[in-house]
Request: fold
Amino acid sequence: MPDKHLSSQFDAELNQISTNVMEIGGLVESQIRQAIYALSNFSVEVADDVIVTENRVNALEVEIDREIASVISRRQPTARDLRLLVAMSKTTANLERVGDEAAKIARMVKSIIDGVAPRALPSSDLRVCGELASGLLRKALDAFARLDVPTAVAILREDDMIDQEFDGFVRKLITYMMEDPRTISASLDLLFIAKAIERIGDHSKNIAEFIIYIVKGEDVRHTPLADIEAAMNTNN
Reply:
């Protein structure tokens, strides 16, 4: 009976940490949506909201890390439970960085609005990239909640689409700057936004890799996608 009681407490603690990870995930997902809205509608007010939310995200990251450290020191978990806690800590760090990127987008939006003729530049093209990145993060969070390995592998594949969009947008921006040097300053702001969106995709990819680590016990970071897919098929 005491062992069962302790096990129930441990499960409750893990569930609470998982809930908090999902909360920070929801916050940063909202930040991305708001940042892209601010860019599409040139809204200073919405951009400011994104920046303010960063404080809540940072505080929640610290809280989650404190909870994880406490559980590890008191429970001394082994095997999968330890992998889960480590992965939740790393996932939280990646989510906090996503929030940083969203805040960076918001600050760049404000810079563009204050600059020269922002509507003359292809800022609307970034909405597609932003929606791809936001969708990828949402999928990563859903997969993390379910510990869904097949979806995690699919996310690794989809991250390439964001990279391709980024490369295409950079080429377009270079053309704009060459044709009209007056757009260079605003174009550089857009370039920083595009890079921030690309990094959001990278962080979603990292979360997908942590899912595989939790379930399979394999660290697939820096592993070619084809090798990961082959390994997952073999394990199945």
User: Anything to note?
Assistant: Residues 2-235 form a domain with the Methane Monooxygenase Hydroxylase; Chain G, domain 1 fold (CATH 1.20.58.220).
